[in-house]
Amino acid sequence: MTEIVDRVTRAPVALAARAANLPRITLDARELADLELIATGAARPLTGFVGKADYHSILTTSRLANGAVWSIPLTLALGDDVLSSASPGAELSLYDAAGRLRGILTVKDVFERDTARELDVVYGTHDPAHPGVAYLVSRPRKLVGGDVEVLAFRPLGEREPKNRATDGFILWFTGMSGAGKSTLSAAVASQLDGERRIEVLDGDEVRTHLSKGLGFSREDRDTNVHRIAFVARTLAAHGVGVITAAISPYAETRRAVRALAEERGLAFIEVHAHSSLEALVARDVKGLYEKALAGEVTHFTGVSDPYEAPESPDVRVHTDVETIEQSTAKIIEALRARGLVRSPVRTATTNGVRPHAGA
Questions:
Q1: How much is the pLDDT for 3?
Q2: Tell me: the pLDDT tens digits for 60-69?
Q3: Residue 250, Cβ neighbours under 10 Å: how many?
Q4: What are phi and psi of 173, to 5 degrees?
Q5: Cα–Cα distance between 326 and 63 in angstroms, integer?
Q6: Euclidean distance between CA atoms 165 and 255, whole angstroms
Q7: Which residues are tagged catalytic?
Q8: Separation of alpha carbons 288 and 95, rounded Å
């Protein structure tokens, strides 16, 4: 029985996080089509772009190195800007011409294209008027082979969605520690569960994994925010509704990540989770605010480090006076008003429930 090949990742968030700092290859239309064939198993037994042994075996015997019949090498060109990073075992990120992350390639080897032989085998001519010949001779001579992990493609033949309720978006929470960002992220994600795919990028989890080792200087805080934004853009570009929950204290940095999202046509909704300092201190079970106010904790946002509250966020929730239901309803309504979700806004009532400022 022929082994099934499926190179589509089951962990898109982790893949996007890995890709954030990798050298980049931009695929042309042909390479992107080949990547889809490989990812979906249509090019089985290939699990990636062909390496040196398979390439030369195809050109001399019309078979892969393992003996399987194969007539056209699926190759990936390597530009000089990435050549020095393409050592065996290294990872390279794969992007399409629109700047969307498509996957990651693990380098097996780098080798030289035999252009003349490939033209003979694949096209049977060297006539530059032939479009295949013109394409091949225009491509870099260096090739890179290796297995791929790929973000899901749209099914073949499926058109781009016309209803924005199937488009990706970024719901960007900002607010001081304990103001309720994580609580509301979970509440919004829960309400949208079953309607569309949602991913939550929580600030504490990102600090543990994607941004491990970063401190709390202005530079490190900005780096953390840009890493979160990169992953969010990547997921949103593939139709995911992304909810981020990080303090993101600096207005200039928030404006920058919004601009980068909107340049790619992605909806960006900024939510300010506001709570008075008095309420945050009162609800701080760890006592961090009291320690910061006493000078025992440094670089604490809103006390010893600045927090620049947004002047005109898309949504502002007052978590020291609103219930979770009330705050969540405001956010869902903002998404619904933009056509990004279909969920009806659930009726919010206090019913004696206390305000919810929290994580």
A1: 65
A2: 999 999 999 9
A3: 18
A4: -80, 135
A5: 64
A6: 24
A7: 248
A8: 42
CA separation for the pair 128, 140 (Å, rounded): 16
Rounded distance between C-alpha atoms, residue 103 and residue 95, angstroms: 7
Q: What pTM does this model have?
A: 0.61
Are 195 and 343 in contact by the 8 Å Cβ rule? The answer is yes
Q: What are the two backbone dihedrals, phi and then psi, of residue 287, each rounded to the nearest 5 degrees?
A: 70, 20
User: What distance in Å separates the CA atoms of residue 337 and residue 171, rounded to the nearest whole number?
Assistant: 14
Distance CA 306, CA 303 (A): 7
Residue 277 pLDDT > 50: yes
Which domains, ranges and CATH numbers included, belong to the chain? 12-150 (3.10.400.10), 164-337 (3.40.50.300)
Between the alpha carbon of residue 55 and those of residues 58, 134, 239, the distances in Å are 5, 20, 35
pLDDT of residue 175: 93
- State how far the alpha carbon of 76 is from the alpha carbons of 5, 7, 82, 109, 180, in Å: 19, 16, 12, 11, 46
Report whether 327 contacts 271 (CB < 8 A).
no
CA 326 to chain centre: 30
Tokens 């940095």 sit on residue: 253
